[in-house]
Amino acid sequence: MTEFRGPFGDLPYIPDDLTIPQFFLDHRHPTRPVNTNLTPWFIEEGTGRKIGFEEVRARTFGFANALKIRWNIGERSSLRITSEIVNNGISLAGEDDVGGSHNFEPKIPPFVSSPSNPAYTSEELSYQIDTTKAKILITHSGSLQTALDAAKDSGLPPSNVIVIDTPTSNVPYVTLDTLVHEGLSQPPAFVERKLKPGEGKTKLALLSFSSGTTGRPKAVAIPHISVIANVIQMAVHSKVYLPAEQKRFRPGDVIPSILSSVSQSEITFEMAPHTVSDIYGIVVNLHWSLFSGFSLVIVPRFNFIQMLKSIQHYRVNHMLLVPPMVVLLCKSPEVKNYDLTSLRFIMSGAAPLSAELTRQAIKTLPTADIGQGYGMTETCTTVTFPRIDQKIGTLGSAGQLMPGVVARVVKEDGSLAKLGEQGELYVTAPSIALRYLNNEEATKETFIDGWVRTGDEVIIKEESMLFVVDRMKEIMKVRGFQVAPAELEGHLLNHPDVSDTCVVGIPDEYSGEVPLAFVTLSQDAQTRVKRDPSEADKIKASIMKHVADHKVHYKRLTGGVEFVDSIPKNPSGKLLRRFLRDKARELVKARDVGKAKAKL
C-alpha cells in the first residue's frame, strides 16, 4: 500500500487529558521554547499596550468567574481561548443537547467556542447561532448591530450579547472588561474541569465552520487534542524548540493577526483579527505563535496602508497570509514607501500560491523566507508546512508533510497513486476533527475510517512535498484534457494589467467547456480605460495573448476575458468560484441571445 509520511519520524507525546487552555497556560511541553525575554503575549495594534502572561491568566479567571456568577455557566476549560484575544465575534455553545438523528451527536460540553467572522451578515451569523445552539454571543462594537439582529432572529436575548471592546458611545450591553473586573472581585464560583485520560480526544473545544465553497458552511467538531496535536506537529517540523540551531523562529519575534477577506478594488482588508475568525487563525496565527514565544499584534479592521505601517512600526518578523494578500504586496505601488526589512518569514495558506506569484513575492520582499502550508478545517489546520531548510519553498509546492501526517493519493480508478502520480488526497493525523455537527451524510462522505477525504487533486513528490493541482470539483475538462484554474490564475497574475483574477469553465459545443477569465484591472489599467474606453479591448487581447504564448492550446482563454470590480472570496481568502460560475452562465446566455438576434 502506497502511503506518504512526514520525514521527521515519530512525534513526542501528545497529552490527551488536557484542555486547550490547560495545555497553553499550565503545562510544560518539551517542544515549547523557553521564552527568556519575557515578551508580551499580545500587543494592541492601535495603542501599543502590551499584555503579558499573568494578565492573560487573570483575565481568563475573571471572565470565567463572571460567566458562572451571571449566567450560571460552568466549566472554565474552554473559556480561556475566548478571553485571550480581542475578537469581533465568538458564539459560545451551551450544554443543551444539539440533537442529531439516531443519537448521532452526543451532547456538546459546556462552552464550546464557535468563532465567527465579523464580515458575516446577520443572516449568516444567525445560521451559525442556530446550528451551534449558541447561548452567548460576543461581538465587537463595530459589529454590534449585526450581532443584535442575528440574536433577535435566533431568539437569543439581548442580555446574552457581550461587547468585547469599550464602545465610544454608551450602549446598554455588558462589556468584556466589566465581566473581567466583576469576576476578579468575587471568590471562585466554579470548579475547573479536569479531563480523564483520553477525554481530550472526545471533548469538543471548537465548532469551527468550514469554508463553504460548496453550499452552506458546515460546523466541524474539533476536540481539544486536535489543536494541541497540530501545534506540537508544527513545533517539531519548524524546530522552534532549538533556537541555537536555526534562526527562522525565535522567542520574542513579532507576528500580526491579519488574515481575512480582501477587497481588491479599495486595497483594504474587510477583516477581523484572523486569530479567531477561522481555523487557520485559531491554530496557527494564535496558538502556535504563542506556543513558539511570539508576540501577537492584535489588529482591528484596517486598510492595506495601515498594515504596512504596522509592519514597519512593530518590526514584524513573520506573516501568515492568504494569496490575495500576497497579490496586494506584489502589486501595490505603496509597498516601496515602507521599511519591511524586518520580515523574516512569510507563509501563504488557505488557497494555492502559484509559482509566478511566489517569484514576484521574492522580488518584493527579499529579506523574507517564503513558503506555503496546506490544511483544512477538517484536519484542524496544517497538513503541510514550509521546510525549515529552504529560504524559498519549492515553487508551486504546498509544503512538506508534517510529522504525524499520513497521506494517500487515490486515483480515479480507486487505486493508490505512487510518487509523482496525481489523485485525490486522503489524510490522517492526530489532529483531524471528529465529524460535522448534525450532518451525518456529509460526515460519512468526508470522515472515512479515521481518514479525511479532502476533495483536493494533488501530487506528492520526493521528500514528501505536496503539490495541489486544484479542487476536484473545479477542474475543467477541455477536449478531454484536465485544466486547473489555479494554474491559469497564477499565470494571469504575471500580466502587468491584472490585479486579481478567477478562471471558470463555460460550456462549449465543441470542447465541452473552455476557460473564461474574470479579471480585476490594476489601477493603471483602470485609468487608461477611463481615459480611452477602446483600451479595454486592447487589454483583453493582450491578456489572452499572454496565456496563448505560454500555455498549451487547450488552456487558452477561448471563453474570453471579462472585467469585474472585485473577485469574490470567502473570509479565508479562497475564491468563491460558484458566484462567478453563475455570472458566467448569464454571460453565455446573453451571448447566445445576441447571436440569435444577429441571425435574424
Terminal Cα separation, in Å?
62 Å
SS summary, helix count: 17
Largest sheet: 6 strands, antiparallel
| Sequence stretches where pLDDT stays below 50 over 5 or more residues | 76-110, 260-276
Class derived from helix and strand content = alpha+beta
> Any idea what the radius of gyration is?
24 Å
Mean pLDDT score, rounded?
81
Helix percentage range: 25-40%
Overall strand count: 31
Strand content: 15-25%
How would you characterize this protein structure?
GO terms for molecular function: CoA-ligase activity. InterPro entries: AMP-bd_C, AMP-bd_C_sf, AMP-binding_CS, AMP-dep_synth/lig_dom. The protein is globular. Helix 2 crosses helix 6 (176-184) and helix 11 crosses helix 12. It has 600 residues and is of the alpha+beta class. The N and C termini lie far apart (62 Å). Strands 1, 21, 22, 24, 25 and 26 form a 6-stranded antiparallel sheet that branches. It has a 4-stranded mixed sheet with strand order 3-2-13-10. The model is unreliable at 76-110 and 260-276 (pLDDT under 50). It has 17 helices and 31 strands. The chain folds into 2 domains: 4-467, Rossmann fold (3-Layer(aba) Sandwich); 475-599, GMP Synthetase, Chain A, domain 3 (2-Layer Sandwich), CATH 3.30.300.30.
